[in-house]
Write a structure and sequence with these properties.
The complex is a heterodimer of chains A (about 110) and B (about 110). With about 110 residues, chain A is mainly beta. Chain A is built from no helices and eleven strands. In chain A, strands 2, 4, 5, 9, 10 and 11 form a six-stranded mixed sheet that branches. In chain A, about 40% of the residues are buried. With about 110 residues, chain B is mostly beta strands. Helix content of chain B is about 0%, strand content about 50%. Chain B has no helices and eleven strands. In chain B, strands 2, 4, 5, 6, 9, 10 and 11 form a seven-stranded mixed sheet that branches. Chain B has a four-stranded antiparallel sheet with strand order 1-3-8-7, with no helix packed on it. In chain B, about 35% of the residues are buried. Classes of the chains: A mainly beta (about 110), B mainly beta (about 110). The interface between A and B is medium-sized, with 22 and 26 residues.
Chain lengths: ~110, ~110
């Protein structure tokens, strides 16, 4: 049951350029979306979130865009840095906030090339 | 910065044995969760806990699983009789209503 999909298992980007990670969802009840970063042998680390009432949220180098009609969100990282190399997970919740169960995508492994 | 902690970091057990995974959530959080990630698969929700009771559980969370908040700081996941397919990373999370913060995980290996 692939309610949240990240179709690119991996992405390589040159240091200093923009990284764009994509996520699609099928459940129209999802109202809150989050991006997490994960290093090997660690837990997911929260990056940024967005409510369905917005179409953009920005925090430093990270910006999340939500296109609710297309059921698509993306995470932009600019400029990309070597420390950004990790697996990035998109997650979605049916609640207004992130305190309800999260449904995760399969992740995209981002590699930043120095 | 406050963080979620989990013990042990690794646990090896024999099939049929009971295991207890422990978590200390962030102190002022009220919502607690367990997720797991089987190797090569996505992170999956197991259970959420609020106000001293289960608020939601997935179909994975069958009678072999239980959760408890035995005191004001710990949150535990018990698997009564482990199966080979319970081998996974188990993540605890806690929430301040807006965001779930995850612990580093316990790697459980069932032999």
């Amino acid at each position: 049951d692939q309610q949240v999909k990240q179709n690119s298992p991996s992405l390589s980007v040159q240091e200093g350029r923009i990284s764009i990670l994509n996520c699609d969802y099928t459940n129209s009840m999802f109202d809150y979306f989050l991006w997490y970063k994960k290093y090997p042998a660690e837990g997911p680390t929260f990056l940024i979130s967005i409510s369905s009432i917005k179409d953009k949220n920005e925090d430093g180098r990270f910006t999340v865009f939500l296109n609710k009609s297309a059921k698509h969100l993306s995470l932009h990282i600019v400029p990309s840095q070597p420390g950004d190399s990790a697996v990035y997970f998109c997650a979605a919740s049916e609640g207004d906030f992130g305190n309800e169960k999260l449904t995760f995508g399969t992740g995209t492994r981002l590699t930043i090339i120095p | 910065e406050p963080e979620v902690t989990q013990t042990p970091s690794h646990q090896v057990t024999q099939m049929g044995q009971e295991v207890i995974l422990r978590c200390v959530p962030i102190s002022n959080h009220l919502y607690f969760y367990w997720y797991r990630q089987i190797l090569g698969q996505k992170v999956e929700f197991l259970v959420s806990f609020y106000n001293n009771e289960i608020s939601e559980k997935s179909e994975i969370f069958d009678d072999q699983f239980s959760v408890e908040r035995p005191d004001g700081s710990n949150f535990t996941l018990k698997i009564r009789s482990t199966k080979l397919e319970d081998s996974a990373m188990y993540f605890c999370a806690s929430s301040d209503e807006a965001t779930q913060y995850f612990g580093p995980g316990t790697r459980l290996l069932v032999l």
